[in-house]
Amino acid sequence: MAGRRDKAKFLSLLQPNRDSLYRFAARNVWNKDQVTDILQDAVMTAWTQFPRFEEGTNFRAWVFKILLNTIYRYNRKHGRSKEHAFEDEVFNVENVAEKSPPWPSILQEPERVMQGLDDRLVTALETLAPTERHCFLLRLLEDFSYKEISDQLNIPIGTVMSHVYRARLKLRERLAALAAEEGLVK
Amino acid sequence: MSNRPNKELDRDDTDECRNCRELLSAYLDSELDPQSSLEISERLRKFERCRDCFAREKFLDDWMRVKLAERGMPEEMWQQLCEQVHEPAARSRLASFRSLVAVAAVVVLVVAAVGYRQYVTSSDEAGIAGERRQTMAELLSAAAPQLVAFRDPAAENALERLREVSREVLGVTVSLELNNLGRHQVDIIGVSEGTDAGGRKYLELRLNCCHHPVIVAIGKCGGSAVCELCEATDGPRKQRPSCCPHSAPSDVIEVQSERRDGFMIAAAAANHPVDALLKIIRIDRA
């Protein structure tokens, strides 16, 4: 246990994670005006609970779990979450997998096409269901293992794997569709 | 996995391809067990179609990783968080508060009965400076023991004084959009600076709204007395003025608090709704 609160130690552990925490909050909070408040709230919770943090365990995973709980609480309080906006949409994995989107064309000139989609990536990301988005971002950006994500979200590892797969699938298809819409591929 | 030729695979082997595609995601994440990982490697080596799938997924992952990692925490926000950690944690202090409720109630009763008559009549003195109270309702009860309108409205330059004091105390400009009040009528009674027990400053504003006393406290988030007041009165709530010696059985204090752009705003009004008032409080960083 960390015992008595040690500010210097707490900040030294927090500092390397500041950008990750900010990015994750910014990508998962419905009301963007609340990003600062959520981070402050999460950091204060972590600071308050720091005496209970076990030294030698994964601080990054611990503080992310606190951030996730804070985001859930704020999004719930906000009354509406991104997920409600899109969960009704039926997404048939098998159908998508069997379609033939313009990926071969995209991969002929990937840089040019994806440059044209820079602004649309966030839009595509926001159409994911929340748990898919959390799993995907925790894995892709924050480099957490499936096991760590499973512990953070309290879901089985197999479900994490499935969420990450579905997130990739949806993003791939939506970006391909957007590329076609924008006329970036023939 | 079978090692059938590519041509045959393209025509017939969709189930196996689908399975491969699903495993590719975990393969990219290095999350497959050694046996499955070996099978996928072998498949990628042999079949062009699977290699294409892998190339596409890998390209997308790399691109998204770069694009999504572009944003970092602004330095100003990091400094704000560090500053917040300087203070003893608000929640633990709040917990200490609750454990001392019985003692505090007695103290507040005595203070309210003896000292706060002077507090009501003087709008410039330091309000709740240094005092620690459990809720906004108690604060209002102490400031206006009779729960009737404050006296001695401030001079005409009250709004200007509000802007000046807020810039001085909070480093931002607080103003009231009085035009958006609808049917309510507001008189500013006093604007003052407070300092909590941890030495942090906050803004205290006393008003009459439709001739009902209202008290508003605004402070930076993180460990200030205003935080405690807000957390103790989470969301809109009607409270009995428990520490007000002169309250009538029908008296009710409406309390509401909210977090806005790094600041905590808490307001309490006696026998009057407070939500309209909260809406007209504007905080400008410029």
Give a written overview of the molecule:
The complex is a heterodimer of chains A (186) and B (286). With 186 residues, chain A is mainly alpha-helical. Chain A contains twelve helices and no strands. Chain A has helices spanning 7-14, 18-28, 35-49, 59-78, 82-86, 93-98, 103-108, 110-115, 120-126, 130-140, 146-153, 157-181. Mean pLDDT of chain A is 80; it is low at 81-98. Chain B is built from twelve helices and eight strands. The longest helix of chain B has 21 residues, at 48-68. The model of chain B is unreliable at 1-13 and 116-134 (pLDDT under 50). Chains A and B meet through helix 1, helix 2, helix 3, helix 6 and helix 7 of A and helix 2, helix 4, helix 5 and helix 6 of B.
In total, the number of strands of chain B is 8
Uncertain parts of chain A: 81-98
Please state roughly what percent of the residues of chain A sit in beta strands, choosing from under 5%, 5-15%, 15-25%, 25-35%, 35-45% or over 45%: under 5%
Overall shape of chain A:
elongated
| Number of separate strands of chain A | 0
Structural class of chain B: alpha+beta
List keywords for this structure.
heterodimer, A: 186 residues, mainly alpha, 0% strand, B: 286 residues, alpha+beta, 12 helices, 19% strand, elongated, disordered N terminus
In short:
Chain A is mainly alpha-helical and 186 residues long. Helices cover 69% and strands 0% of the residues of chain A.
What is the strand and helix layout of this fold?
The complex is a heterodimer of chains A (186) and B (286).
Chain A: H1 7-14, H2 18-28, H3 35-49, H4 59-78, H5 82-86, H6 93-98, H7 103-108, H8 110-115, H9 120-126, H10 130-140, H11 146-153, H12 157-181
Helix pairs in contact in A: 3-4, 4-11, 9-12, 10-12, 11-12
Chain B: H1 6-12, H2 14-28, H3 34-46, H4 48-68, H5 75-86, H6 90-99, H7 101-114, H8 116-121, H9 136-143, H10 158-170, E1 173-176, E2 186-195, E3 201-209, E4 212-220, H11 225-232, E5 237-239, E6 253-260, E7 263-270, H12 275-279, E8 281-284
Helix pairs in contact in B: 2-4, 3-4, 6-11, 7-9
